[in-house]
């Protein structure tokens, strides 16, 4: 039976500690991560901040980041491809080696919130012991089984959760719709494109968490050294 654990990891124990200290208003949401063997992690991270120039300058000096590239720019957020290096890989590779995956990961100035899917309790215990042996500090805030579990936000970020609920309440999902995507975006004071991307990511997280969780790891994916 699959086991889901929610972990709170201090920013000092994970990625982008220096960047988040320099730009404390930044909010991060991991979209996807590829693992290049034992060498590095390559995540795609959505970033929301009022200081993108300062954020990118801090990234360039962050010891947990190799190269980085902005691959998408929206009105209020940007998507970055980053090479995570150094001690960050210890926690993530412990998860990968246990045949587990990350359903969601969000970061702020003081901690990262990780939602992990393990094949069973033994895999969770293995990762726990590995991290303790490596002196990686974290707090397990919740553990529950897939069967009969309450899922709380079903793998959604708080922002995605609020948006989907409001979409239902305002009639966006009615047939026919009671308001258009543009009208919905205007009510939320975001761009049409930003809302479309948020809904798409929310729908994907719902499907991964509610329909296919436990079948195929989806938060992290192994790729060959040639990048394929």
Q: Can you describe this structure?
A:
- This protein has 7 helices and 9 strands, in the order E-H-E-E-H-E-E-H-E-E-H-E-H-H-H-E.
- The protein has 228 residues and is α+β, with helices and mostly antiparallel strands.
- The protein has 2 domains: 3-146 and 214-222, no CATH class; 158-210.
- Strands 1, 2, 3, 4, 5, 6, 7, 8 and 9 form a 9-stranded mixed β-sheet that branches.
- The two termini are 32 Å apart.
Spell out the blueprint of helices and strands:
Blueprint: E1 3-10, H1 17-22, E2 27-36, E3 40-48, H2 52-61, E4 65-73, E5 78-84, H3 88-97, E6 101-107, E7 111-118, H4 121-133, E8 139-145, H5 158-169, H6 181-188, H7 192-210, E9 220-222
Parallel strand pairs: 2-9
Antiparallel strand pairs: 1-7, 1-8, 2-3, 2-6, 3-5, 4-5, 6-7
Helix pairs in contact: 3-4, 5-7, 6-7
- Largest beta-sheet characterization: 9 strands, mixed
Shape: globular
Q: From the alpha-carbon coordinates, what is the Rg to the nearest angstrom?
A: 18 Å
- Number of continuous helical runs: 7
Share of residues in strands: 25-35%
Order of helices and strands: EHEEHEEHEEHEHHHE
The number of distinct β-strands equals 9
Keywords:
alpha+beta; 9-stranded mixed β-sheet; 7 helices; globular
Tell me briefly what this model is.
Helix 3 runs antiparallel to helix 4 and helix 6 crosses helix 7. The protein has 228 residues and is of the alpha+beta class.
